[in-house]
Amino acid sequence: MKNITLYIIAFTLFLISSAFAETYEVQMLNKLEKERNLYNPSIIYVNSGDTVKWIAADKGHNVAFTKKGVPDGVELYKSKLNSDAEYTFNTAGIYAYNCTPHYGLGMIAFVIVDNDLSNFDQVAKIKYPGKSKKLAKVLLEQIKNGS
Description:
This protein is an alpha/beta fold.
């Protein structure tokens, strides 16, 4: 009887937390004003249990978690090209991600879960290629300053 009661309580808590989970959308774009090959927005703050849905507004893009750019214990995720994608974030920390074909052209972005910056130094040490290096510096400074 005690096990059944614990199971019911755990299941109820799961349902309640799921009811408050949100879904956020990020567009994968070829162009926005003067910028090319970008995620809009490039920084997004979510809570554990929330989902980010990437919308393939333009063709030729995907989402790939950057190696060494996720919290410890999180497996790298990679979506298909030209398709919407979604991922539910259950581990706190910073997630760096990129578009595989446009990584060197600066198509990078970040998801911050539970305002946890504990893996900031690890993400900042990534050797971002090409234009991504300059953009990563700007975005990481915004994250560090909370803006």
